[in-house]
Amino acid sequence: MNTRTSEGIAQAAREAVEAALWAPSIHNTQPWTFAVSGDEISLRADPDRRLRVSDPTGRQMTISCGAALFNVRITLMALGYEPEVRRLPNPEGPMLLATVRVRPGREPGEHTRLLYGEVQRRRTHRAGFTALPMPDPLTDALVREAAAEGAHLAPVRSDAPARVLAALTGAAQDVQAQDRQFVLELMRWARPPGSARRDGVPVAGYPTDPRRTYPQHFASRDYSRGNEWGAATEERVSTSTGLVALLCTPGDAREDWLIAGEGLQRMLLHASAYGVSAAFHTQALEMCELREFIRRHLCSGEAPQMIMRMGFVLDESESVRRTPSDVLE
């Protein structure tokens, strides 16, 4: 446990920034920068890493930064400090998403330690799941975790809406695959074999030969684009769709996007602690007409922020992260 000296606070702030780097982000773009001054951590979005074609409003960039913000918070709490958070503190500085002051706290509880222990273990999955079903109590717990941050995790428990989401995902994937700008943007973040980059999706992060999942098939991003890249597909590969879920927020402003990221990461860390991984499918949410359709017909009027599948996997995916010196201003 760090002492409450200025040196201890500075060390806690550094550890919080290091933990933030392990947050999920669209195409592993890691679109954030940090500054540490005394007892304050500043989180800024990095507009150079925003997906200008598929994320023109910066919604997905802000959700990614919200996930990083939650990692900062849970790390400080695990170290015995209290994070004092101000979200969107400067209306004239839209890239400044949050400031976090490191305040004296208390001994962390068991749940805080549980979530913190998963920060570096959690991985994004990009294939099928095993046939082992998600236990209802665990699913209910994930709903509560997201709600604790102001987000709404809505498990899709019936076939019809799951089929609709799968069909919309496939339609969006097919349209984007014919759009040269979409393809070029995706290729920017697809790392070729042997790449030394510390961002983007590595070749071991997705299967070479993605298998169709059942009962619903959700189209995957084509990171290899005709190349034989990716992790070798084993005969025992899992092909279950897993549990389909939507993450929604009551509103659709920048603060809602930030909260969605915090709720997403809290839920993902809890899931990881029980051996559950998540695969994300945001293609349909990148097309305004399809996103509006999902909002009206599948989200009861709430704003859909994420479409995902969750389940149990046999092998963990590989991931890479930039170093603290890359993101500290």
UniProtKB/TrEMBL annotation:
It comes from the Bacteria. This is Nitroreductase domain-containing protein. GO terms for molecular function: oxidoreductase activity. Gene3D superfamilies: NADH Oxidase. SUPFAM superfamilies: FMN-dependent nitroreductase-like. Transmembrane segments: none annotated. NCBIfam families: Rv3131_FMN_oxido. It comes from Microbispora triticiradicis. Residues 197-216 are annotated as: Disordered.
